[in-house]
Design goal:
The chain is of the alpha+beta class. The chain has a domain at about 5-140: Protein Transport Mog1p, Chain A (3-Layer(aba) Sandwich). The chain is built from 7 helices and 5 strands, in the order ααβββββααααα. It has a 5-stranded antiparallel sheet. β4 and β5 (about 100-105) form a beta hairpin. The radius of gyration is 47 Å and the shape is rod-shaped. Belongs to the proteasome inhibitor PI31 family. Its main location: cytoplasm. Keywords: Acetylation, Cytoplasm, Endoplasmic reticulum, Methylation, Phosphoprotein, Proteasome. It comes from Poecilia formosa (Amazon molly).
Length: about 270
């Protein structure tokens, strides 16, 4: 407990009861953890200054002790109060900024030898145990990253390492940092070859087959396959605007003979 003996010796004339000794001990734990006492009471004073020592009048009220602390890198004030109830001291430490409160109950008789108040070597019964209780229950704990986040970060790093070492893995084409490159639209020239076949409804630059005679650019006769083809397709067989590939002469009657016709009865010359 380096430093506690020097502090205890400095305030020995102010320690008049076991409660004073416990408050002195808790004060030193605050100092060890980076806090500095700026005064006593609840309200700030013009005489406030950061110090490792206990301020004047710190033990004037044996039923209610009140001390204020600050750390070296913040203006947030921590208010420490100790309330005496029978043989117990109830400590409350409040962050004036966030209003968060931590509590600690100390049985004075279990921690201090009342007949050894002015003998530092024997005044505290279990200094190490009391120190652990103060740090575990009263002092604010430093913020830590959630365990799950750290675990996920480790797994992600391991996964990236494994991917980078995989000789069969194709590298990412997109850079991880910086602006994304501008890739030309594959439906725009000169990359539009075959685009019409991918867009049969003609929403982009036409549509249909590459060699569609109805969309070849030559003058059209006004033929509309959706109205039907006599003797070939009934009206409505081709939806309006649909791609239509002609499959025979467009005349009303096909010239004969038609190889699709049935041969005359008894005719068996397959070469005629």
């Amino acid at each position: 407990m380096a430093g506690l003996e020097a502090l205890y010796t400095c305030v020995a004339d102010k320690i008049e009861c076991p409660q004073d000794a416990v408050v002195c001990f808790v004060h030193w734990e605050m100092i060890k953890n980076g806090y500095r006492c700026i005064g006593s009471g609840d309200e700030p004073s013009s005489r406030d200054k950061k110090s490792e020592l206990l301020p004047a009048g710190w033990s004037s009220n044996k039923e209610l002790y009140s001390l204020r602390y600050q750390t070296g890198d913040t203006d947030t004030v921590m208010v420490l109060k100790a309330i005496a109830v029978d043989s117990t001291l109830i400590f409350n430490l409040m962050n004036s900024g966030t209003k968060q409160v931590s509590d600690l109950m100390v049985n004075v008789g279990d921690q201090v030898n009342a007949d050894q108040l002015h003998t530092f070597d024997s005044v505290f019964r279990d200094a190490d145990g009391l120190s652990e209780k103060v740090k575990a229950q009263l002092l604010p704990r430093p913020e830590k990253a959630p365990e799950r986040s750290r675990r996920e970060e480790g797994e992600s790093s391991q996964r990236r390492t494994e991917e980078d070492g995989d000789p069969l893995r194709l590298p990412c084409r997109h850079p991880r940092h910086g602006p994304q490159p501008h890739w030309p639209d594959p439906l725009n020239p000169p990359f539009a070859a075959g685009g019409a076949d991918l867009d049969p409804f003609g929403s982009v630059g036409g549509g249909g087959m590459i060699m569609d005679p109805l969309r070849s650019g030559f003058p059209r006769s006004g033929f509309d396959p959706s109205s039907g083809i006599p003797d070939i397709l009934p009206p409505g067989a081709v939806p309006p605007g649909a791609r239509f590939d002609p499959f025979g002469p467009m005349g009303r009657h096909r010239p004969g003979p038609d190889p699709d016709h049935m041969p005359p009865p008894g005719y068996d010359d397959m070469f005629m």
